[in-house]
Amino acid sequence: MEAGPRDRERDTEQGDQSTPGVPEEAVRLSPDGPDPLDMSAVAPEVEVELRPQRRLRIWQLAPIVILAAVGSLMFAFPLAFEFGDGGPVVAMLGLLISCCAAGWGLMAARRVGYTLPGLPAKGSGERPDWRVAGLYTVTACALVALAVWRVARLR
């Protein structure tokens, strides 16, 4: 039968240091931790991040994806099939909803810490390269111009 904690204390006070099955290091330890002389043998502590990694969750992505899908369908169907006089209005409304979903997605990604390729991370202190920012601006303007031109051709 194994001895309880009270019996062990009494045995160690009597000078019985040879406890079977217990390593010598455990016998040398004091009840409140290792001796200060033995601290050099202890490995350094490693800090671990306890907060979860920042990323977009499904409940954040679902409304953005649904809004983008509805907007793109509203934009595409009046252009593909003749809807009469209301076609351009529905197409422009779909384009507006799609652009809102894209902006919402960009803001959600920016809040989590993602950036567009070529642009610095939020809070890094770096300035964006003007060529990359200009390329994004020209691309966005070209897409808007093509969409408006396509809707204007419906009339």
Protein model, in words:
The structure is a single chain. This protein is mostly helical. It has a domain at 58-117 and 129-152. It is built from five helices and no strands. The protein has helices spanning 5-13, 24-28, 58-80, 87-112, 130-152. The longest helix is centred in the middle third of the chain and has 26 residues, at 87-112. The radius of gyration is 34 Å and the shape is elongated. The chain starts with a helix and ends with a helix. The mean pLDDT is 76. Residues 1-38 are annotated as: Disordered. Keywords: Membrane, Transmembrane, Transmembrane helix. The chain crosses the membrane at residues 61-81, 87-109, 130-152. It comes from Streptomyces beijiangensis. This is Transmembrane protein.
Task: Give a brief outline of the structure.
The chain has 155 residues and is mostly helical.
SSE inventory with pairings:
Blueprint: H1 5-13, H2 24-28, H3 58-80, H4 87-112, H5 130-152
Biased composition (Basic and acidic residues): 1-13
Keywords: Membrane, Transmembrane, Transmembrane helix
Transmembrane segments: 61-81, 87-109, 130-152
Tag the structure with descriptive keywords.
Transmembrane protein; 155 residues; transmembrane; mainly alpha; elongated; 55% helix
